[in-house]
Amino acid sequence: MIKRALGALSARWSSWPQLVCHQLGWWACVVWMGWAGPAVMIGFIGLHLYIVRERIGRELILVSAAAIIGIVLDSSLAVTGAVSYVGSLKVWASPFWLVAIWAGFGATLLHSQSMLVRNRTICILTGALGGPAAYWGGERLDRMSVNPEMGWVAVSATWTAALIILGELATRLRRSSPA
User: How far is the CA of 81 from the CAs of 55, 85, 97, 158, 167, in angstroms?
Assistant: First the structure.
């Protein structure tokens, strides 16, 4: 019965089911910043990798790349004073809960959120506008504080670079392996 349910889920996974599960992981990370929230996101990533196991290599590349880019991006923003984050559990200067969010985002780039990295123009717009929008939301949820003088420009620039890199990687992986 479980195998049949997973088979049915697998057929539709790349759309709404994946998006909903990712958003549950996202909210868990934001609400439970210590270990609990990231554990939920890791559960989402584990489920995702199980469902798409025949293409696990390319999925692991995107999840890993997104996590590494997130660590570098958010640590750079923290070290320069552009953004201050809430959360004591850190990977370099990036909060662990945010690293988990980046990793989960990587799992969506060939699936439910692939439209965000469909081409270079969309990557630029997603990074330039979506990054600041996400951090604005983070401020409203009291999970970070963006420096009003330089922070928003830094967030926009770093997110634009991150989305261009992730978009290029997703495109190459999509072209190099069968769907």
Answer: 39, 10, 19, 14, 27
